[in-house]
Amino acid sequence: MAIAPIGTQVEPQLIPTNAGLRTYATPPQALQENIVPNDLFYVRNHWKDCPVIDVDTYRLKVDGEVERPLSLSYEDLKRLPQKRFQATFECCGNSPVPEYYTKALRISSVMEQIKGHGIMGNAEWAGVSLKDVLEQAGVKSTAIEVMFEGADHGPDEVVGDPAEVTYERSLPLSKALHPDTILAYEMNGEPLPLNHGFPLRLLVAGWYGMNSVKWLVGIHVLDRKFDGFYMTQRYMTMNKPGNPEPYRYYTKLQVKSIITNPVPGEILSTSGYTLAGAAWSGEEDIEKVEISMDGGQTWSLVDTLHPRSGYSWSRWEHRWHPPAAGTYTLMCRATNAKGETQPMEFPNPWDGRGYGNNMVFPFDVVVRNQ
Ligand SMILES: Nc1nc2c(c(=O)[nH]1)N[C@H]1C(S)=C(S)[C@@H](COP(=O)(O)O)O[C@H]1N2
Ligand SMILES: [Mo]
């Protein structure tokens, strides 16, 4: 049976990308919109079932190195001043691993190919500054980190060990006190959907997705660095052998760009096409996006690079008249305001897990005569 290319789907749907039904990718069509609709925004859960929280009895606990421990209801939180902005985030495991580009397709890479760049999204979030809540509690001078506790727990999804672990992550105090680190209760104008952390999630603007703890029930101010399972055993990669630091931990989103138009499998014609895509770099602005139609031999600036809104990606467009029918390898490459640019190769091949991939991605398209 022939499988229709992804571009021919009539109703885009979330794409399951692992057997445990814990991760669903945003479909390529939904990445063409500036705002990814809630029902198509990727889902990354460590356990199949989301915790179901009764908003009437919900309490957010704030304790640890604080003068006044708090227990806040949903209504208490809603009464605080509201912050609203767009933010793009991606999972550390977004984008295909390089084997997909360089070797014959292996079984493990089929999943990679299907998920594409869809373990990411952009949405408008609304909530309250974590800073306001921490100030209400009074952070002691002994504090150095803030730990966030989700309501979800269970055995580790990969090896089943530990047999019982809670989804918990921490932030350095400086990022926790940044006014744009928010406790979000709204996503695209709707109450936070169940899959995205109802009733409350942390939203760490400009940082990788795993930091934004969903189903948030506890905020614990610590006088030490938190060494929980999801800080020290997951979401880090091995550094190049010889580096004095053995591991790399992911915080700010690295500079990266993708092509969203055409979608994979779409056939173009020699009559011309408006290429489009997105570029982002966590807290930094995107300075430029370049595009190549010949596999990286020659580059030009894209016609239009739109400014971002808040912490959103920057969208770009570029008009292209293919000179002849054939197969072309397109690439886009973003540079941020600090001058950081995407590497041409996968940045940490010695780790072998495909995390933190912000390379320039080749994208093959077929052009036919009009
Ligand atoms: N409580 C909790 N928070 C969580 C997770 C989780 O499994 N449990 N997954 C994290 C990961 S790895 C990512 S990439 C993002 C995904 O957010 P989303 O499902 O809303 O897209 O949530 C993060 N926060
Ligand atoms: Mo993630």
UniProtKB/TrEMBL annotation:
Keyword Oxidoreductase in annotation: yes
InterPro entries, sorted: Ig_E-set, MoCF_OxRdtse_dimer, Mopterin_OxRdtase_euk, OxRdtase_Mopterin-bd_dom, OxRdtase_Mopterin-bd_sf
Pfam families, alphabetized: Mo-co_dimer (PF03404), Oxidored_molyb (PF00174)
Ranges for domain Oxidoreductase molybdopterin-binding: 50-230
GO MF annotations, alphabetized: heme binding; molybdenum ion binding; molybdopterin cofactor binding; sulfite oxidase activity
Residue span(s) of domain Moybdenum cofactor oxidoreductase dimerisation: 251-363
Single biological process term from Gene Ontology: sulfur compound metabolic process
Co-factor(s): Mo-molybdopterin
Protein origin, superkingdom: Bacteria
UniProt keyword annotations, A-Z: Metal-binding, Molybdenum, Oxidoreductase
PANTHER family: SULFITE OXIDASE, MITOCHONDRIAL, SULFITE REDUCTASE
Protein name, entry field: Sulfite oxidase
